Amino acid sequence: MSNTYTWNINAxxxxxxxxxxxxxxxxxxxxxxxxxxxxxxxxxGTVGLAPYKSGEPFTPFASLTKDQVVGWVTEALGAEQVTxxxxxxxxxxxxxxxxxxxxxxxxx
Length: 108
Description:
Number of strands: 3
Order of helices and strands: EEEHH
Largest sheet: 3 strands, antiparallel
Shape: elongated
Oligomer: single chain
Helix content: 25-40%
Strand content: 35-45%
Distance between the termini: 39 Å
Radius of gyration: 19 Å
């Protein structure tokens, strides 16, 4: 069975006002979760966003969607880093399925 990955947005840091706009996002805190249906693992990180420039298209904070912000995150990280993160989560799941270290119960 292949792994399924889900991006989650945990927080978005914003400037209260910037370039004439309110709540302008500049850092996204994210988690990439993975599961094989039985075992789960994740990685967490933050990514800085390109600074907003006056006159550019702007989405008010209250109108942001998860898909939009995940798009920003994956674009900022780049395809190579996204693949590396998925491989990291996959390796964590594989280690849960076939552990290389165990701690058996003490026999006394």
